């Protein structure tokens, strides 16, 4: 069965119909990207960029504030701007290259679910355009779109976005174009929720519990018939179904490429399907997909190989992992390091290091930078580029993480939800002249 026919069959089973005459922009505005480009050209021409100082001198008032240099000369990222590079300027604002892709800085927006595909058809909406493009305009180097389901039953909630069908591609294109036009890299996280699927959200109710079938829920699947907390018990997948899901990840990756995304992230963290296979506390299989470390990582490796085979050679492939499940006898740092070494050999370019979400009822020692030591260990012991995430909220705090070699990039999550322009504020705090900060030309007059 072809990918398109398989997707159609999956849609039928989930009661989802392909849209007809769908206006994927959602707004009656022609050529938004072209209009933005024209506006950029009409803006005042930038002054030549100057290297950022490695240390900001104190102002005459003695308050230590950076002087406001080049305020009228900021330019759009991706339009000829020279950002701090090499050994100059704060680490946060040095470009980073993965395969054939250069990211303008090391401040990234991680995938965060918004549960806002309100038609329950997996298609992003004008909300998603506003959400992601505003952060790109705010200066983030990479925008990683939220967990995107590779199958209807792979959604976390009925209101998750997806790429399980070709007719969903166009609804992503204008968002990707907007992100790239604003100078950021557009990446997407592909996911299957497994036993943590069919759960509630603000949009449908039933928060922190399974959505009933009569209200749009579905039977969940997992490596073993072990529920997560009080959620409904999942059905154990057959080997043939696992093979089919490997194909679903690859097909979704192909659609992401068609939509224009520049990097792919595999979600193997936070207790969703792939991490359920990894963890011995949720995987009790005795076949080739369980029964020891090599069996438990097999599904992830097959997914990584399948995606690597369908995306361009110069496109980065990322994997998000939970470095520990915070439970005795479960997934831990040593296994994460061993896995990261193997992923590197399978064409994975960066490991996005998080923790938890796999086992219910555990105690997590949440505090600022509580996950950074895991990133540092994976980076050092596996010799692979990593990101750090988790209560990194302040510019100087983020800079120290990079300066001390604990990560190659930092992800600003919840702080980005309340401040879409966090990188621009960070540039000012760290003494980056405004003509080297990632300002859009329309916002130069408001530069810090």
TrEMBL record:
Essential cofactor(s): FMN
Regions crossing the membrane: none
Phylogenetic placement of the source organism: Bacteria, Bacillati, Actinomycetota, Actinomycetes, Bifidobacteriales
Limits of the NADH:flavin oxidoreductase/NADH oxidase N-terminal domain: 92-430
Region annotation Disordered: where it falls in the sequence: 1-21, 36-83
Entry keyword annotation includes Oxidoreductase: yes
Feature: compositional bias, Low complexity: 36-46, 74-83
A single GO molecular function term of this UniProt record: NADPH dehydrogenase activity
Gene3D superfamilies assigned: Aldolase class I
Presence of the UniProt keyword Iron in the record: no
Protein name (database record): NADH:flavin oxidoreductase/NADH oxidase
Record key words, sorted: Flavoprotein, FMN, NADP, Oxidoreductase
């Amino acid at each position: 069965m072809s990918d398109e026919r398989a997707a159609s069959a999956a849609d039928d089973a989930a009661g989802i119909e392909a849209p007809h005459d769908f206006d994927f922009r959602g707004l009656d505005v022609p050529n938004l990207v072209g209009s933005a480009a024209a506006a950029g050209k009409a803006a005042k021409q930038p002054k030549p960029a100057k290297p950022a100082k490695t240390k900001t001198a104190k102002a005459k008032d003695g308050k230590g504030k950076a002087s406001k240099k080049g305020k009228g000369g900021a330019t759009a990222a991706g339009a000829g701007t020279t950002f701090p590079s090499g050994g100059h300027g704060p680490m946060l604002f040095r470009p980073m290259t993965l395969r054939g892709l250069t990211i303008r800085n090391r401040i990234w927006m991680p995938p965060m679910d918004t549960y806002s595909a309100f038609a329950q058809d997996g298609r992003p909406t004008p909300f998603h355009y506003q959400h992601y493009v505003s952060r790109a305009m705010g200066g983030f180097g990479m925008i990683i779109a939220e967990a995107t389901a590779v199958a209807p039953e792979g959604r976390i909630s009925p209101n998750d976005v997806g790429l399980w069908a070709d007719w969903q591609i166009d609804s992503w294109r204008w968002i990707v174009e907007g992100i790239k036009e604003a100078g950021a890299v557009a990446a997407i996280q592909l996911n299957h929720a497994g036993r943590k699927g069919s759960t509630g959200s603000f949009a449908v109710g039933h928060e922190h519990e399974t959505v009933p079938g009569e209200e749009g829920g579905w039977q969940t699947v997992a490596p073993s018939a072990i529920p997560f907390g009080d959620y409904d018990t999942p059905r154990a997948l057959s080997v043939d179904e696992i093979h089919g899901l490997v194909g679903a990840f690859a097909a979704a990756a192909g659609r992401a490429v068609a939509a224009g995304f520049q990097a792919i992230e595999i979600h193997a963290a936070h207790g969703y399907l792939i991490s359920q296979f990894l963890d011995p506390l949720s995987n009790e299989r005795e076949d080739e997909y369980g029964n020891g470390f090599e069996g438990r990582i097999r599904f992830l490796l097959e997914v990584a190989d399948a995606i690597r085979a369908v995306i361009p050679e110069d496109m980065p492939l990322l994997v998000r992992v939970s470095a520990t499940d915070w439970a005795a006898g479960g997934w831990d740092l040593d296994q994460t390091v061993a896995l990261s070494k193997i992923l590197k050999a399978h064409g994975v370019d960066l490991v996005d290091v998080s923790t938890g979400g796999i086992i219910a009822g555990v105690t997590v020692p949440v505090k600022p930078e509580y996950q950074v030591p895991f990133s540092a260990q994976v980076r050092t012991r596996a010799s692979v580029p990593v990101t750090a995430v988790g209560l990194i909220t302040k510019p100087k705090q983020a800079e120290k993480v990079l300066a001390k070699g604990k990560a190659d990039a930092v992800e600003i999550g919840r702080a980005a939800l309340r401040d879409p322009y966090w990188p621009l504020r960070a540039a000012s705090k760290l003494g980056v002249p405004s003509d080297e900060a990632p300002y859009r030309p329309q916002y130069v007059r408001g530069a810090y």
